[in-house]
Design a protein that fits this description.
Elements: H1 3-14, H2 38-59, H3 63-75, H4 80-135
Length: 137
């Protein structure tokens, strides 16, 4: 099953209409039925941060030993040493990419929550000021 087919199946099963106009006669004018709260964003950001810290610790603990073993195998004339080093180098590169993505997700979601809270506060303040100004007009 392709991704598109699987996504279509999951969307219909969950009854979601993400970023689509409402069905004919259903009203709603294109509103999505998917809602995310600041609490949800914080939770996802925290999960990304936890994954970052756990994976950062676990991903590289064997690096020095792998380097030593691959060098020893190379010195002893085994081609396996070069293959071991290539596998380690690929793992290291992909691990760094995952860590970078986790950090980016956490930082972006944290910034989104803070920005939203600040925006809400600004709206409340502006609304309050407009109510006050009505009494002086």
């Amino acid at each position: 099953m392709s991704f598109d087919e699987e996504w279509r199946t999951e969307r219909s099963r969950a009854g979601m209409r993400l970023n689509q106009a409402a069905p004919a006669g259903g009203g709603g004018g294109g509103a999505s039925d998917y809602k995310v709260t600041s609490k949800d964003l914080k939770a996802i950001g925290n999960e990304a941060q936890e994954l970052f810290h756990a994976f950062e610790t676990d991903a590289f603990h064997a690096g020095a030993q792998t380097g030593t073993a691959s060098n020893q195998l190379n010195e002893d004339g085994f081609a396996t040493g070069r293959g071991m080093w290539r596998a380690w180098d690929k793992w290291r590169s992909q691990s760094e990419t995952l860590l970078s993505a986790c950090a980016h997700i956490h930082n972006h979601l944290e910034d989104t929550v803070v920005t939203h809270v600040n925006h809400e506060e600004e709206l409340k303040t502006n609304f309050s000021m407009s109510k006050i100004l009505q009494h002086f007009s």
